[in-house]
Amino acid sequence: MKKFIFSFLLCGATMFPAFSQTYQELSERAVAATEQDSLSLAEKYIEQALKMEPANPHNALLFSNLGTIQHRQHRYEQALDSYTLALNIAPRAIPALMNRAALYLELGKDDLARIDYSLVLDLESDNQEALLMRAYIHMRQRNYNFAKSDYERLLKLAPRSYNGRLGLATLEQKEGKYEAALSILNAMIAEKGGEATRLTTRQYAVLYVARAGVEQDMKHVDLAMMDLEEAIKLDSSQTEAYLIRGQIYLSQKKKELAKRDFEKAISLGVPQGELRELLLQCK
Fold first, then answer.
1. Residues 6+ apart with CB under 8 A from 272
2. pLDDT over 80 at 3, yes or no
3. For a tag site, which of 101, 102, 158, 236 has the least CB within 10 Å?
4. What is the mean pLDDT of the chain?
5. What's the CA gap between 184 and 188, in Å, rounded?
6. Distance from the Cα of residue 134 to its chain's centroid
């Protein structure tokens, strides 16, 4: 969650003479520059405001927004420093905690991300994004009981959560509870076209790929292939669909077809090195 939350800085804003550059005006100019995607200029305005009033408590917000600008520029260590400075001023600032957690997760620092999401949940127990992301981290770390607890808590708050239900289905699959996983995915796919759902074509494609993965684990290859075909028809950029289908083709000794799917996955962004062994098996 990367939000620029400047609203309370702007409350009661007044018009300033053209030659005046107050703390608040610099903050306003940072907002305008950010909205125009002039990130370097926005950063300069924020830095000027911080130098002008280094003890201003609103600097927590400026540091947080500076961190997000740096994150967007892929200056990750500087972004972490900025988020931490924001939290040194305002330790209970949920946006800064969420932003830092997201960056930790992106950098593969799962334990630090989990700590920040847990701090958010201590402050706001019904924060759905924090629950979702902590569940995801627990699942990656194979802490399945904790992951399930967070997913179930999320789904009590938002029973129709797409990511929550998909995450729980993935968890059930990882635990070998294939029927439970299929039950969730079948229900989600059955909603297609219903008035109550507003999922995108891409989201439905992901569901078909997920179900194919479960079917593959269950050795229901024909069903898996049907779902993969449907997924690719809905969204031809579904990398995972080509990977699963390539593995199935390879298991069937259809090496040329398998190679074609692995090469398609590489063209969609999968590093070639990750598929080297599979490609060798296609010869």
1. 266, 279
2. no
3. 236
4. 90
5. 6
6. 11
Q: 270 is written with which tokens?
A: 């999968």
Residue 245: burial class (beta carbons within 10 Å; 0-12, 13-18, 19+): buried
One-letter identity of residue 133: M
Q: Token pair for residue 28?
A: 């306003």
pTM above 0.90, yes or no: no
Dihedral of the alpha carbons of 154, 155, 159, 163, in degrees to the nearest 10: 70
Cβ contacts of residue 87 below 8 Å, gap of 6+? Answer: 60, 93, 96, 97, 100
Q: Indicate the burial class of 270 (C-beta count within 10 angstroms; 0-12, 13-18, 19 or more).
A: middle
Structure tokens at 33: 């520059």
d(CA 183, CA 165): 11
Torsion angle (degrees, nearest 10) of CA 72, 80, 49, 61: 90
Q: What are 150-156's contacts with CB under 8 Å, separation 24+?
A: 154/128
**Tokens read off for 187:** 């229900």
Q: Which helix (H) or strand (E) holds 21?
A: none
Tokens 């990656």 belong to residue: 140
Q: Give pLDDT tens digits for 202-239.
A: 999 999 999 999 999 999 999 999 999 999 999 999 99
Give the Cα separation of 122 and 159 in Å (integer). 22
Q: Answer for the pair 117, 123: CB distance below 8 angstroms, yes or no.
A: no
Give the pLDDT confidence of 86-106 residue by residue, as tens digits. 999 999 999 999 999 999 999
Return d(Cα 102, Cα 122) in angstroms, integer. Answer: 17
**CB-CB contact of 40 with 46 (8 Å):** no
Calculate the CA 276 to chain-centre distance: 28
